[in-house]
Amino acid sequence: MDNAVKKLRVAVIGCGRVSVMHFEAIADVKDVELVACCDVKKDRAEKAAQKYGGKTYTSYEAMLCAEKLDAVHICLPHNLHTKASCYAFSKGVNVLCEKPMDVDLQSAENAVFEAEKQGVLYGVILQCRYNNSAQLVKQAVTSGKLGKIISARSVLTWTRPDSYYQESDWKGTWDKEGGGVVIDQAIHSIDLVNWLVDDEVESVSCSMANRNHKIVDVEDSAEGLICYKNGVKYGFYCMNNYACDEPIEIRLFCEKGKAVFDYDDAYIYYNDGTMEEAHQDKNVVTYENGKDYWGFQHVRQIRQFYAACRGEEPLEISGKEALKTHKLIMSLYEKGGMKK
Q: Model pTM greater than 0.85?
């Protein structure tokens, strides 16, 4: 009997900055063949293909019509995420899309509907859930070791100077990026807390402002309070006017102790005097030109997505699951009052 595993035929749509996290992961995973690299900027697609393999395309519609694919990775500007995803769904192709789902709620909800309608998988990258630190805290919460979460907080102070936005034709725009520090940087820490609390949001209050940037009008600062139906109160603060990208900090105050963690390290202090800790293994995959703040766990989520494509296990971060955080992010913008 031939026990060989069929190679999944995959492609990447969008060969910009974050695509390296996908290309390197694809190269690291066995039984996956990179069939094509697609970007409207032909030179970027060609550069990716020269390094990682595959044909080059400047149109994802043409690529999806020409190639028989099992899955595509979508690394496009935010406002194109669900448009490209839905086209892939219509061709019966599974999708793994970068965060956020889109720049509005209706498009994201429609993509979830279309994926279910076509019977294909729709995964959304929220790779920080796979950090060792987040996994330890999640286990302590779900097992009951920490008891009920009473309150939470997150703080993000990073740097995004005007020069960062000058390098892009879509970053820092309401119509293409959907916002600033909340949707692009703080989304991961907000997602982690939302995932840990795992309850329906009851109310949201939020303040947003552009306090320092001259060439964009999206928010560079935000703070707010998110209240959940189970009584948890979550306060957050984020801004990208700092001098460097400091580690984010998340704190949970619980009935049986407290957890303090960032993307790399976690410390849980129990009321009985014991403690647990976890630290990141950064040797999972080496990402050339990757950023530390992207984390190191794209490969873990991508491996899980491929296992789901093969029917070996359920998809963990589906569009339906990611929609919980997307709804919250959209609520923050609604209350923040800046989004046009």
A: yes
